[in-house]
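Take a specimen:
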Amino acid sequence: MDRTELYDVMAARKSAPKDFGTYIGDNGRVNRCARMMQQGQINHGGKLLDIGGGIGDLAHLVVQQKKLFDSAVVLDISKKNLEAAASKGCTGILADVDKQGIPVVEQFNVITALDFIEHIIDPENFARECYRCLKTGGEVFINTPNIQYWEHIEHLVHGRFPHTSGDREVYHGGHLAFFTYLDLCEIFENAGFVECKQLKDDDGFRQPPATFNATFMEPPKTQNEYVEWSMRFGNPNLLFRATKR
């Protein structure tokens, strides 16, 4: 069984009638991404490429419902997922990014990858492909678990690796890699991106408790250090944005 067939099996296990047709607003990471676009934290307008876009919820929401983009393309490894995306009127591309890169020749204003980069073997090549497929001044937005989140660190101290996925179909949700903000900065800056920034996860942010501070960290000395420290350790989701030169 190759990777495409495996992901089709996983998609079939989770498939439900609600996945087909109009998006009903039940995906938190999709809603958060669209809200951040509306608030100007992530760019919008023009053409969107949603990599690992699954059943097309984000593309449907930001194009057909909220009119934030003129058009969107959903790239996914699963034929089953793309069937659901097509039912929402989405244009789909079937591809294994690790094998094929991003098989498009057009360029996009924004690329999104929600809970995707942790599932691939070669994130460095993925970053280079994102750079190639963006227009000048275009933006990539990554949503991935933040392995530096303070609760994850406490799990490690107590001898268990943190479970960063809600998907229990396969071990650790099929995650192959785990990232901090500085990891993503290195990967995407090496690909040519600038203005790398971590955005606050307003839905999940939890300030590290005083006991964590006292045990693991040297207290921040300035307000700027405190804000940066809180971002690194208080966000369970690593929301990362970078711009093409």
User: Anything to note?
Assistant: The chain has a mean pLDDT of 93. The beta strands are 47-51, 71-76, 91-94, 108-114, 134-145, 193-199, 237-244.
